[in-house]
Amino acid sequence: MARYSELSRQELETLRTELTERYEQFKRRGLKLDMSRGKPSSDQLDLANGLFDVVNSKTSCLSADGTDCRNYGDFTGIPDCKVIFCEMLGVAPEELFICGNSSLTMMYDAIGKMVLHGVRPGAEPWWKTPERKFLCPVPGYDRHFAITQRYNFEMIPVEMDENGPDMDVVERLAASDPTIKGIWCVPKYSNPNGVTYSDETVRRLARMKTAASDFMIMWDNAYAVHDLHPEERQQILNILEECKAAGDPDRVMMFASTSKISHAGAGVAAFACSTAVMENMKNLLTIQTISFDKVNMLRHARYFKNLDGVLAHMEKLAAELRPKFQTVLDAFNNELAGKGIAEWIEPKGGYFISLNVLDGCAKKVVQMCKDAGVVLTSAGATYPYGKDPRDRNIRVAPSYPTVSELQQAVELLCLCVELAGVEKLLEQ
After folding, report:
1. Does pTM surpass 0.85?
2. What spatial distance separates the first Cα and last Cα of the chain, rounded to whole Å?
3. Domain ranges of the chain
4. Reduced to 3 states, what is the DSSP secondary structure of residue 326?
5. Among 279, 315, 336, 428, which one has the highest count of C-beta atoms within 10 angstroms of its own C-beta?
6. pLDDT digits (tens, 9 = 90+) for 362-399
7. Does the N-terminal peptide bond of residue 139 adopt cis geometry, omega within 30 degrees of 0?
8. 61-305 CATH
9. pLDDT digits over 25-55, tens only?
10. Which are the contacts of 315, defined by CB distance < 8 A and separation ≥ 6?
């Protein structure tokens, strides 16, 4: 197959006519498929329905330390649930706080607390730096960008490579500008391109010089156990331990949840940090809540028991997800490979596939898919302010549709990528 850029204008015109007819046929199918968010399917959610059985009207509601989970108490989380997250994140119980159902809520809250109060020992509130900035690896998670935008940070994009964010750029910017207050990180199977940070990247983040003494790494380890191929499980260094070794344990806040492990919106979330930052966070949190939902903590603790229980469950989830990811990747390899109009990374875990099309074509591809009945994540969503400077990145979320629905959706997506690419080449 020749690269489309090597085709003559007449060949491109003929191809456009063929592709346009196929596209019109798709529109006549009346598809109604939504791939805009990384939602678990009902089949995935069913795998955790045992949660409903382990705590009910006939069971004890006492945690391992004797706390009645129906009542107030155990402000930082029950010990039986802490076992799971301590093992998952590699932290001590005193470095961990178990919260409600959403790590995103805690990230929003943590940024807010740093803006209003400062949480690092001796740090001034960030509102005293009106021109504050935040580093944003791209492509990245749109909800992270929304948080920092809401708190009036200027967001500075940093391109990702196969090892994580470009550390030469991160180090240069962080060392030169005291108004840069932190960086967003999804370190394992990053959203959306599936990259896992290398050991060198983790060490450099922990050891780099920062002009801001209160610089904070927001370490969103959302896919810590989301391996598509458990036998090839990727590992990352413990960022908190690396920060301790570098002499700055207060530099990082780690976040995790069971939102895509158990039931979305009904899971358990946690954050971890140095004991010094933890004391400040507890002092602030004790004003806004007396305790979080310990019944749900107990439910998860009894169902999963420990990290081994979580990993056994994740093998079942991986078996559900692998055919879906493979359906998308097979279509890309069969329909787009070698044509010079798209590129992608084959992730080993996580929830997404990142697709790059020809510059200036992503918005057009997404709109064409929508007009034919398939809703994708908005083009530009993986960049701060929703603006992809090259208009090329599309986040593909294979988790929710069935395999048969995915086959139709990705066939249409590939067709739209081809058609938009051909039309772009004809404009040149």
Report:
1. yes
2. 21
3. 4-44+312-427, 61-305
4. helix
5. 336
6. 999 999 999 999 999 999 999 999 999 999 999 999 99
7. yes
8. 3.40.640.10
9. 999 999 899 989 889 999 999 999 999 999 9
10. 230
